[in-house]
Amino acid sequence: MGLKCGIVGLPNVGKSTLFNCLSNAEALAANYPFATIEPNIGVVNVPDERLSKLAELVNPQRIMPTTVEIVDIAGLVEGASRGEGLGNQFLANIRDTDAIVHVVRCFEDGNVVHVNGSVDPVRDKEIIDIELQLKDLEAVEKKIAKYQKLVKSNDKEIKKGLEVLEVFKAHLEEGKSARSTPVEEEEFRFVEDINLLTIKPILYVCNVDEDSVVDGNEHTAALMEAVKDEDAEVLIISAKMEAEIAQLETYEERQEFLEMMGLNNPGINKLITSCYSLLKLITYFTAGEKEVRAWTIREGMKAPQAAGVIHTDFEKGFIRAEVIKYADYCEYGSEKAVKEAGKLGVEGKAYVVEDGDVMHFRFNV
């Protein structure tokens, strides 16, 4: 199961530099607006220490991490909802993503021009919010017009849908994003088919200078205050520093650099795992001599559906799942030892897979 996050922001905020660090795809990172025109796409391995530990215990022929798909989307400018700049292309590209990583410039540098002439992360955030909200409002109004023609049929579902759509319309007109619309969770079904932009989960990334990467600065504080009522995480990352880390050849050199900066892990690792959490995704593992592999599933997925991520036949012919908890695998050191200790669970179709489960599926086609 793939994860597709779109990196968005105004021109010249550090999106492409951050993307380069994530994907090593060498997207053009130039000091002028619209350096990124076509969306660059990179596939990034999700860092997971558990995978490395299982590989140490099993010593497989190969190790396969799970991945995240990252899309670097062209910088948006004010008026994008009306087609200004690369607006139409930007909006179409972001519609194809599952989540939004909104990069906001929180550093001062006279050598890097700002499209609006000054550094103001709250203003920059609001520019993009407004453009996305206007496009969503347009989509909601079109669906309201459609339902108004059908409401005379006295169909209860149409009437209910019209009521819910009016709530979305009023919410967007207040300058608020669709994800926070005050409706019941099941009522979001009325807007599923119009794929609203501001309904997607969001992660804010404050791009700072190296001196601000640990504690932030006045710009990051202002942004955090502005989004405190949103259901959104805020990360502080220095894209410039991440680029320097990416150029170091060895793991030891990277760790030494991080320690010098007062950090435990690269910001990129935090970004990837935050994207994972953003979409309510978890990982289970398969472990054997040929391969130790991480698999991505959604929280709450049951064993047959989790098996189907490997192959559809596994789901169709599912018989049972043999499950070892990650902690037990580490404690006993091998599948054989886990079995001998009576710690291997045999689960049926109703079993809800947990993050870190090591699984083996029995199936019949």
- Judged by helices, strands and strand pairing, the structural class is alpha/beta
| Portion in beta strands | 15-25%
| Strand order in the largest sheet | 2-4-1-5-6-7
Largest sheet: 6 strands, mixed
**What is the averaged pLDDT score?**
86
Q: What does this protein look like?
A:
By secondary structure, this protein is an alpha/beta fold. The protein is built from 13 helices and twelve strands. The chain has helices at 15-23, 49-58, 87-95, 121-150, 156-173, 218-226, 239-247, 251-260, 267-278, 303-310, 312-316, 326-332, 335-340, and strands spanning 4-8, 40-45, 62-64, 67-72, 99-105, 202-207, 233-237, 281-287, 291-298, 318-324, 345-347, 358-363. A six-stranded mixed beta sheet has the order 2-4-1-5-6-7, sandwiched between helices. The chain has a three-stranded mixed beta sheet with strand order 3-9-8, with helices on both faces. Helix 1 (15-23) packs parallel to helix 7 (239-247) and helix 4 runs antiparallel to helix 5 (156-173). The longest helix is centred in the middle third of the chain and has 30 residues, at 121-150. It is flat. It starts with a strand and ends with a strand. 36% of the residues are buried. Mean pLDDT is 86; it is low at 25-37.
